[in-house]
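lol ok so funny story. i was supposed to be doing the assay writeup but got distracted and ended up predicting the structure for this chain instead. priorities right. anyway since i did it might as well share w the group, maybe its usefull for someone
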Amino acid sequence: MPRELVVPETSLWVNLEVAAKRYPDKALYVFFGRELTFSQAHAQAEAVAGWLQSVGVGAGDRVLLYMQNCPQYAVAYYAILRANAVVVPVNPMNRADELTHYITDAGARAAICSADLAGIVAEANALVPDDERLQQVLVTRYGDAMPDGPVDAAIAPPPAMDSWLRSDPPLPPGHSRWNEVIAMQRVPGPHTAQADDLALLPYTSGTTGNPKGCMHTHRTLMHNVVGGGVWGYAGAEAVSLGVVPMFHITGMMYGVLGPAFTGSTVVLMPRWDRELAGRLISAYQVTHWTCIPTMIIDLFASPNYASFDLTSLRYLSGGGAAMPHAVAERLRDEFGLTFAEGYGLTETAAPSHANPPESPKLQCLGMPIFGVDSRIVDPLTLQEMPVGEVGEIITHGPMVFKGYWRHPEATKAAFAEFEGRSFFRTGDLGRMDEDGYFFITDRLKRMINASGFKVWPAEVELLLYKHPAVQEACVIAARDAYRGETVKALIVLRAQARGKTSTDDIVAWSREHMAAYKVPKIVEFVDALPKSGSGKVMWRQLQDEQARRDAA
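and the output, tada:
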């Protein structure tokens, strides 16, 4: 493999434009048997881009993208780029209270969402000041991309999923319909976006406050778009399973941006279902699958596991959680497959490290990929640590983001000067072995990893403080046999709520006001939270106590 890559000096839109000329009739996406070809995706993206410009979306404007995996997600993504605008991906599990922050902080002009989420968009829009509201909302049904008739049983979604996908809830007033916009065939103006223009504003939380937008340009994303195919031996012949959510930087890289560059085909799943995954891999002879280890564990637990034909798989990769040794051995013994774990953050446009598939190490982040220089340093002195010793992982590379949107102080704190260059401070503690492989050992940042979903305690605490019965809250991680970690909330109730509010009340309220993966699975009422001399809640002490409890 080359040490560094030579990547196109263009916008990401050009990748789809070129692929549509190279592979016009080849399937870019397959959605329950219905194909969307490269030329069709290109034509639809042009039409949506023309509409966006006609309703006032200009160069550099931010557009929210809020839906589960479907072909329209990618078409909308490229349409926003074609309009010279900026994609703001939003987790479709987010509720109205959470969505308001994305509208106001990003200063979004428009949103493109699925029909089942249109009501949440309207609710959130009503909660923000008049002068900050979304001006336009474009809505698509998942069923718009599915076959008109019955789906072959071998690839059909389960009944409950099928009903959800084909649902057609009434739209709030003023919303535009996807098929009608496509039919308008509006022609967009010139594509002017350059490699160093802002392309993507994905939000990530941190140790304090609300989520912050990570500024990625076409260039920072292009490096991993190109590198993903090179590292994973993916070309136009590859068939991948697109099940990691497209709003997530990993799903976006391998399910939206990568395929348009390599000319590969993606078999899409709107959400995880182990039986459906097994049947789709078998039916379409999937060769590449980027996932989280929890999915493979779940697939192996299927009672129908023996009937799945997984022999077509050539490259299995992912991250978000460590792959258990026993599961990795099963993969190797039964299929001759190695799981190539990787490591990256939203700030690094997915991978900054990856295991070489021909020589991976288990529970290992891998080695720095193309053009990346990573070091292990003392978090306080920034002195480089010897091989094998633990320190903070810092990273310099072409895919590192340009900073946090409207947060200059947070941007400054996220970078450190090292050997005359700017390195991103990951906040993860790790070590490097004698072969140059990196291993994570702990976190400097407060973060809970639940089945690959990153939960930031400070964000959950902010939401919990909106509950009228909550006086104080501290969120920590608790061990979970399936998810790895789960969310636990320690809560001090207001005096008038004591004896009247139950833990179930808190959980039920949380389900209404936050994404499901953030909802505390464990709630414990306490009389007081430990505090430092300056009055800060000593979350680390509570986390350590929970760790001892879990170990016992």
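Residues 38-54 form the longest helix (17 residues). The chain has a mean pLDDT of 94.
back to the writeup now i swear
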